[in-house]
From TrEMBL:
Protein name as catalogued: BgTH12-06168
Assigned keywords, A-Z: Signal
Residues in the signal sequence: 1-28
Origin organism lineage: Eukaryota, Fungi, Dikarya, Ascomycota, Pezizomycotina
Top-level taxon in the UniProt lineage: Eukaryota
């Protein structure tokens, strides 16, 4: 009888020990979860709070709007007009799934992100009902400025960037001389480049495969070479939309709500990105220097 009592007591102690271990482990996981949750930056937009990851998903959707080949795709809306298309500033509204009210209904004035042609996030705005103007959401803790490209995997190769697109250098190079005459016949001369030291330049339409909403799309762009067959730059087309009247050089952080009822007008702009460091069109060996684009609008 005494031995049975010892056995039951031993089992009881073992069960208690296991229970305590599980309890401590669960408590530690809960604390860790709260720490992770508390460290993710948030945007406080008066009555709405957005996680940094949610804002990033909105920015990614906005950037895809620049290049999607679907005709019914939503396009970034010009927020601030500029004389130079490269300097245009855009806005993109938060989707219903994120911006709906507590009752699950659509709100009248939805938060929006402000960004540029490089998909760099400039601001997140909310509508202040007291001032009747859009104002900047509060970032807690402070959120760093991140471009769309920095969300991509880090590559050991030099990266060429233009607008919302980027390439590894080898993507722009020709790695085989097969069908070379046919390939080179596709280049046409770029206007007003005969006077350049390495002119005349030539351009050719090429394509890049991208994935938007888990579906592959073929995006067309142009590659520019000089008279020595060095890659001189790339040209990207952005699809955008405009209202009949848009603020010119307005303050990015504030603004009255638009009162125009006219439909948005879709259009396209061309971004010409000239490289600081050229590289051979036919070389399969990447250069060691990372290239950075210059924007130039006077070549067509």
């Amino acid at each position: 009888m005494s031995s049975l009592r010892h056995i039951f007591r031993g089992h009881s102690l073992w069960i208690t020990a296991v229970f305590m271990i599980l309890l401590i482990s669960a408590h530690a996981s809960l604390i860790e979860g709260r720490m992770v949750e508390s460290t993710e930056p948030r945007y406080y937009c008066q009555k709405k709070i957005y996680q940094f990851s949610e804002v990033e998903s909105v920015r990614e959707a906005a950037c895809n709007g620049f290049i999607s080949i679907r005709k019914d795709s939503k396009r970034p809306l010009v927020h601030t007009e500029e004389d130079d298309d490269e300097k245009l500033i855009y806005e993109w509204l938060f989707p219903f799934a994120l911006s709906k009210n507590a009752q699950g209904k659509e709100r009248k004035n939805v938060e929006r992100i402000i960004f540029n042609n490089s998909c760099e996030l400039l601001d997140v705005l909310y509508y202040n009902t007291q001032t009747r103007a859009f104002e900047s959401c509060t970032k807690v803790p402070d959120v760093p400025v991140i471009t769309y490209f920095e969300m991509e995997n880090v590559s050991a190769e030099p990266i060429v960037r233009c607008g919302s697109l980027s390439w590894e250098q080898t993507e722009l190079q020709l790695h085989s001389t097969r069908n070379l005459p046919q390939f080179m016949s596709g280049f046409v001369e770029v206007k007003d480049t005969s006077s350049e030291v390495d002119g005349p330049w030539k351009r050719k339409i090429s394509s890049k495969r991208v994935v938007i909403k888990d579906k592959p799309q073929i995006i067309f762009y142009e590659i520019i070479i000089d008279n020595q067959n060095q890659v001189r730059g790339v040209v990207v087309t952005h699809n955008i939309s405009r209202k009949p009247s848009v603020a010119h050089n307005s303050n990015l952080t504030t603004g009255k709500t638009p009162t125009l009822q006219s439909a948005q007008k879709k259009g396209i702009i061309r971004l010409v990105c000239l490289l600081d460091n050229t590289f051979p069109l036919f070389s399969s060996t990447p250069i060691s220097t990372v290239t950075s684009p210059k924007k130039q609008k006077n070549h067509e």
